[in-house]
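Hey, I'm writing a tutorial for new members on how sequence and structure tokens pair up, and I'd like a real worked example in the thread rather than a made-up one. If someone can provide the structure for the chain below, I'll link this post from the tutorial.
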Amino acid sequence: MVVYKLDRLARSTKKLIELTEVLEKRKIQLISIRDNIDTTTAVGRAMFKMLAVIAELERDIISERTMTGLAAAKARGRKGGRPLLDDKKVKKALKLYDSKEYSLKEIVDLTGTSKPTLYRELEKRKIIS
């Protein structure tokens, strides 16, 4: 089995080693192109296990930094995610849609409301009616 990089193969060292044990039982050798590892040799198998641990450490550090960054942004009063919909724009888009004078593309261009938002609001009308 050929992979580009070990950390693409599994999320944790445990899963990676379990996978390699299954591959070994089936007599399938693992080769990582980017990490330059070939498990057909003893040195290759040892390097594989060491790099698997390092790859998991790297993912954990990235995750911790991301969480720290999000917490710092939140402490500064920043919010993540998409901005809330502007109700005025949506109402205007629905009014234009009801008038049947404009195409959907024209409504989107005039109001700045996206097609999915418009469709979602129209679907809500069906459910309520």
